From TrEMBL:
Belongs to the MTFP1 family. It comes from Cryptotermes secundus. It comes from the Eukaryota. GO terms for biological process: mitochondrial fission. GO terms for cellular component: mitochondrion. This is Mitochondrial fission process protein 1. PANTHER family: MITOCHONDRIAL FISSION PROCESS PROTEIN 1.
């Protein structure tokens, strides 16, 4: 049985989406709180990168040159995958959904500003569970077709 990956197969994965929560609350909070949410998500990305790199370093290798190369590739693969799947794409997605929601409500309704902001936050939060799997699947596909083909490896 394959080892369970706590960074991708458990609720710990949701820490990578802290910045989406920050983006959803952007209309309500100071920008420094949004930046903090990106710090949390980035820490998650780095933790997974260190975990995958360490696990790869513990595998047996024919020689040290092969080991260092494979350990490096595992770390880079994880860093790229997590950066795009956890921070970059979801952050942009929720940011744009919220911006469009706020803009649309401002120009099509007579709702008070505070109500529009809270509705925008609710819309952003409601979208998060629906974007996780499609984004992960998309990033996995792109990684398989680009970086992993270029370096001749599979998923880490």
């Amino acid at each position: 049985m394959a080892e369970r990956d706590i960074y991708r197969d458990t609720p710990v994965r949701l820490l990578g989406y802290a910045n989406e929560v920050g983006e959803a609350f952007r209309p309500q909070i100071h920008v420094n709180w949004v930046r903090l949410s990106y710090g949390i998500a980035s820490t998650y990305v780095l933790a997974d990168t260190v975990d995958k790199t360490f696990k790869m370093s513990k595998r047996p290798f024919v020689n040290s040159s092969t080991k260092y190369h494979q350990v490096f590739i595992a770390g880079v693969d994880t860093l790229i995958w997590q950066s795009f799947a956890s921070v970059i794409i979801p952050g942009i997605t929720i940011n744009r959904i919220c911006a469009l929601s706020l803009y649309t409500m401002k120009h099509t309704t007579k709702l008070p500003s505070k109500t529009r902001k809270w509705l925008t936050t609710a819309i952003g939060l409601a979208c998060i569970p629906f974007i996780v799997k499609p984004i992960d699947t998309f990033v996995e596909f792109v990684m398989d077709e680009t970086f992993r083909k270029a370096v001749g490896t599979g998923k880490y």
